[in-house]
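User: Show me a protein chain along with its predicted structure.
Assistant: Here is one chain, sequence first, then structure tokens.
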Amino acid sequence: LFKKKFGNKIIMEPANLIGMDNLGEGSLYTLNDNNDNPISEPDGGPIRLGTRDILLGLPLAFKLNVMPGDRVRVSANNLITTANGPATKELDLRVRGVFKAGYYDFDAHHGFVSTKTIRNLYRIRNLEGADYFHVKLSDPFSADEIKKTLFSTGYRIRTWAEENSAFFSALKLEKWMLFIILLLIIVVAGFNIIGTLILMVSDKTREVGILKAMDASE
């Protein structure tokens, strides 16, 4: 995504574009606007994106320094053959609005456009069907089981855990580091207590001897 500023300065940010025509309450994605209200049209229906509209995540819009109504230029990451050689397809789009999905990494790297815009940007000749499907599960922890069930269909399936593997690996590493740190603290504290007790008993050797001489039990 490109945004021209005053002079020749250009702000550029990478983003993943998702082609969906209708976005709103009841759709696959739960999106809120800048005021934490469910995103929708003024009449309360789902957002209907036009061929020149784009919906940006709030952190992404902040990085580009754009507001609803501003225009950004979108450049595809694939090359096309032109009379002047290989080039990328670019489109000027109007920022229809901003959204918050509640997951910062998603909000900071994703935008929504219409399916026609995606096909135009990547010059997809097939006007029917889709290149991938997003499926929302009522039980997110059953994703691995469902993946095994659908593995024989020939589709390439990625679960939410695989899509965010780096994030969960960091959480796992943090969990292990906290466990090791707490274990070391407990071990050091235990040795300090044991050492203190041993020194206390050693200092009382004479008193213990006197008590045993007086026929005290062990």
